[in-house]
Amino acid sequence: MDVSRQQNETARTAERGPRARTRKLMLETATRLMQSGITPSVSEVAEAAEVSRATAYRYFPSQAALVHAVVDEALGPILDWSSDSPDAHTRVADLLATAMPRIDEFEATFKAALKLSLDQWAQRQAGTLGNEPLFTRGHRVGLLESATAPLQGTVPPESRERLAQALSLVFGVEVLVVLKDIWGLTSENAQSVAEWAAKALVEAAIQEAGSVA
Questions:
Q1: H or E element that contains 175
Q2: Helix 139-147 crosses helix 157-167 at what angle (to 10 degrees)?
Q3: Is 170 helix (H, G, I), strand (E, B) or coil?
Q4: Does the pLDDT value for residue 117 go beyond 70?
């Protein structure tokens, strides 16, 4: 069972008044906990928010649903990003310029979500996950497909897909794990390296397509 952003938005639209305030309280509480490095359960958020567990589970029936909602809130303007530029270099650069500062701001939240994803993977491998819904991560796929859209007709479809896949390696919280935690870079330098790598990947794809043609 996957948890989608559309489901979360539908829930938000349906809630008004006290229900909306309770949901907002739970999301704010969960965000605070995740920003402190915790990947909370629904029960833990309910306790911290002083909301009954029964009420909490009506809003978020699983930890995956809760974390997914928090992640979508943290992503904020990244999910609304779009560009009309006809140039792939410009689009990719604009996406990273929009996304990376926000990812850095909510680094702890995204790392807590990453931890849940890794924990669930380990549980699946061990056969202990049971019926717990999966926490899915895939927003960057659509974003990068949009960012590389100007290359349609210039770069073969399989090469454009490979480019988007390669760009996903320099776009996301995982980049901060490598560049800040392992290399000890500042946030600004980490973003600079990510932008340099993204530019190089786009240029490589264009040059490769040109040499084949």
A1: helix 173-176
A2: 120
A3: helix
A4: yes
Q: Tell me the three state secondary structure of residue 136.
A: coil
- What single DSSP character describes residue 112? H
Average pLDDT score over residue span 162-170: 97
Q: What is the mean pLDDT of the chain?
A: 92
Q: How many CB atoms lie within 10 A of CB 56?
A: 24
Enter the tokens of residue 115: 């931890």
The residues, ordered by sequence, that sit 6+ positions from 102 with a Cβ below 8 Å of its Cβ are 74, 75, 76, 77, 78
Residue 2 binned pLDDT confidence (cut-offs 50, 70, 90): very low
User: Cα(71)–Cα(65) distance, rounded to whole angstroms?
Assistant: 10
- Listed as own residue / partner, the contacts of 156-165 with beta carbons closer than 8 Å and 24 or more positions apart are 156/209, 156/212, 159/205, 159/208, 159/209, 160/205, 162/205, 163/201, 163/202, 163/205
pLDDT score, position 204: 97
pLDDT above 90 for 13: no
A 10 A CB-CB count for 96 gives 22
What is the model's pLDDT at position 137?
86
